[in-house]
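QA checklist item 7 of 12: single-chain prediction sanity check.
[x] sequence parsed
[x] length recorded as 502
[x] structure emitted
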Amino acid sequence: MPTTMADEETEITYAHRTKPIHYGSLEEAERQNPPQTDVSDTAEVPETESMDIEDNEQEAKQELLEEFERRKKARQIHVSTDDTEVRMQLRRLGDPICLFGEGPADRRERLRQILSVLGEDAVKKKKEAYIEKKIKEDQENVTWYHEGSDTLKSARLWIADYSVKRAEQRLKLAHVEGSISATVRSARLQELYKKSRTLSSHSSQIGDIRPISSCQFSPNGEMLATASWSGLCKLWTIPDCQEVRTLRGHNVQVGSIVFHPEATLFADTTGICMASCAQDGSVKLWNLESDEPIADIEGHAPFRVSKLGFHPSGRFLGTCCFDNSWRLWDLEAQEEILHQEGHSRPVYDIDFQIDGSLAMTGGLDAFGRVWDLRTGRCIMFLEGHLKSILSVDFSPNGYQMATGSEDNSVKVWDLRRTECVYTIPAHTNLVSKVKFQPTGGHYLVTTSYDCKAKIWSHPNWAPLKDLCGHEGKVMSADISPDCKYIATASYDRTFKLWMPEQ
C-alpha cells in the first residue's frame, strides 16, 4: 500500500549521542586545563598542623649515631671467657643466666651488649647496692632489748636455780639408763611397742553438747579434765568415765584446760589446781573443791587465748595470745612478768621443757621458737613447716621436740644439733596435737582432723597403731602419767579412753 504524505511527516528520527572515550594518560589534558582554585582552598594552613620532617630526620640520625657509638663501646668492653663468671654477672644484673638455645659465646655477647647500655661498672654498682640493702635489713631486723622489772629479774634467777637442780636429776637418770645393756633396752622397747599395737577403745563417753576441744589427765592419773565449746569444763573419773564436777565460768568456747603439776599429788585442793582459757581472752584458775573459778587472769582481752601451760614448778603460767605474743604470769606475785613478742602472727601453743629452763612456742606464722627463760633470748628458730604450727611438745629427754602443723606433717627437732632431724608425713589433714610418752619419750601420739589418732615409735618414727573410732575431727589427746591410758577428745562431742588389750 503506498504511503501518504501524512505518514511520512509522522516519522520521528532519534539522534544517538555517544560518550567520548579517552585513551592514555590524563596528565596532558590536566596541564592544558588547569583546575580553578577556590578561595577556600587558598587558606593558609595553621603552623600547629605542619609536620617538622626535618626535625624527625635529625632525631633518627641522632639515634643512629648513638647506636653506632654503643656498638663501638661494646666492642671495647672486656668480658670474661669463663662461662661460670659470665653467668654470675648476669645473675647480679638481674638478667636470665641462660636463654633457650644460647651457648657460651652467645651468652658473652649478650652480657657485652647489656654492659654497653648499663655501663662497664654496672655489676660492681649492683653488688654495692645489694650489700647496702643487706646491711640496712640487718640493722632493721636486729634484736633489741628493753629493761625489765625487778620481779622479772628475781623470777629469772629463781628459774635458773630451779632448772639446774632439775637438770642434774635428769642427767643422773639418763646415766642410769645408759648403763643398761642395749639388749635389755631393746627388749623393753619391743615389749612397749607390742602393747601399743594392741591398743583398743576401752570406753567412749559423750562429754558435752558441743565439740570437746581439750583433754588432760590429772598428775595422779585418776581424773580427766575436758573443755568444750559450750564454755563448760568437766572432771571425769578414770577409768569408768563418771562425771565428778562441772566447772562453770566461761561464756564462750574454751580452748584448753590444764592441771597444775602438783594437783592431786601434794597441792592443797583449795589452791590453784587447774587453769583454762577461752576465745574471749579470759583465763580462769580453778581448785578441786568449787564449781566456780577462784581467780581470773586479766590482760588478754579482746584477743583470743588459744592455749596455756604450767611451768614444771607450778609457780608460773604461760599463755598464748592472738596479739602475736605470749605471756608469763607469776602466780605467787599475781602479776604478768613477761610479755614476749617475736612471732609475726598469733601464737597458738606453748610447752615447757622438763627442767623448766626453756619454753617452746608455735605460731600461725608457720615458725616455732625456743626461749631461754633465764636470759629471755630466743635460742632456736624452728623453720620448715609450710603452714601454721598448731601443737608443740618437749620430750622427757629434754633435748627433743615435736611440732604438729596445718601442713599435715610432724617435725622432730634436736635442740643439741639445732635442726630438724625427721619429718613425719603423719596425716591426711592438719595435725591438732602432738604428745610424747611422759616417762621416756619412747613413742609419740598425734591427732588430726582426718578423724584419727596415731602412735609413732622412737627413734625410727615408724607407725605403731592407728586409733580409729571417732566420727569427727580429733581435737586433742593426752597420755596418763603411768602410760596405761590414752585419751582422745573429738569434734563429735565424745572422748575415748584407749588401753592395751589384757
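[x] summary fact logged: Residues 81-128 form one domain.
[ ] second reviewer sign-off
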